[in-house]
Each structure stands twice: as structure tokens, then as C-alpha cells.
Amino acid sequence: MKPFLTFCALCCFAGIFKLPIEYYTFLRIIISIGALLVLYNTLSSKQHYFSIIFLIILILFNPVFPFYLYRKSIWIPIDVITGILFLLINFVEKTEQKKEEEVPEETTEHSIPIHQRTVSRDRIINPKKPKEE
Questions:
Q1: Which pairs from 88-93 meet CB under 8 Å and 24+ separation?
Q2: pLDDT value of position 29
Q3: What integer pLDDT is reported at residue 9 of this predicted model?
Q4: How far apart are CA 112 and CA 72, in angstroms?
Q5: What are phi and psi of 10, to 5 degrees?
Q6: What is the mean pLDDT of residues 108-124?
Q7: Of 90, 100, 92, 65, whose CA–CA distance to 7 is shortest?
Q8: Who's near 9: CB < 8 A, 6+ residues apart?
């Protein structure tokens, strides 16, 4: 998924230049697919702030019911911001996965090995003290 999101960002940055209308139709399709993937992942991991942002991106770049702004000067900042957001979501997910991987490692280092553990039911307890003579 990471290479695809990077490809989406690069396509957004290429959308800044004057290109044929077919490229922008391709851009709408690619960005919509990328936004759907990110939306699904952020909703499943309960990151609602990214979910809202990528829902707006999905609405703007929707190829089925296109949202026309008619001016290139309006689309250029939208393309740049969208490209930056796709790159940002790549780095944010990487740091969160590293944090999740580090947490289980720390808990296993401090645990006692199995052969040194004692279970309370295995202890012999003498309720009466032996009489000393």
C-alpha cells in the first residue's frame, strides 16, 4: 500500500503542470482509489481526523460525479496539499507501526523466565509450627 500512496502523491504533484484532460481523469481515478484505501485503514484504526480529511479528498476527486472548479489556479494548491497528505499518511503509519512493535518487546524483557516462576499452589505451607525441643 505504501508504494501506491507514494504514486498517488507523485501523480498529484504532476497534476500541477499543464497536461491533457485524459491525465486529469486518470488522476481522479487514482486519487479516489488511494483515498478509499486510506479511508478504510483510518476508520479501522480509529484515526478519525485523517478519515474526515480523506473523505473530503474523495469527494473532490470523485470520478463518477466530478467536482469541477474550472480554474487551474484553484486546482494547483489542492493538488499540492493532497500530495503532501498522501506522503504524510505514509510516514504517520510507519511511526505508529514502529511504536506498536516496540511495546511488546519491552514487556517481554522484564518478565521472569518460566523456570524461575513459582506458582502459589505448588508451595507447601505447614500451618503448624514444629515444636522445638
A1: 89/5, 89/38, 89/42, 89/50, 89/54, 90/2, 90/5, 90/6, 90/9, 92/50, 93/2, 93/41
A2: 94
A3: 93
A4: 64
A5: -65, -40
A6: 60
A7: 90
A8: 82, 83, 84, 86, 87, 90
**Confidence tier at 71 by pLDDT (50, 70, 90):** confident
Taking 3-state DSSP, the helix, strand and coil percentages for the chain, each rounded to the nearest 5, stand at 70, 0, 30
pLDDT at res. 32: 94
Q: Which amino acid, residue 15?
A: G
- The predicted-structure confidence for 6-49, as pLDDT tens digits, reads as follows 999 999 999 999 989 899 999 999 999 999 999 998 888 888 88
Q: Are 60 and 67 in contact (CB under 8 A)?
A: yes
pTM for the whole structure? 0.67
Q: Are 79 and 15 in contact (CB under 8 A)?
A: yes
Give residues with Cβ within 8 angstroms of 27, minimum separation 6: 11, 12, 15, 61
User: Phi and psi for 43 in degrees, rounded to 5?
Assistant: -70, -35
What is the Cα–Cα distance from 32 to 38, expressed in whole angstroms?
A: 10
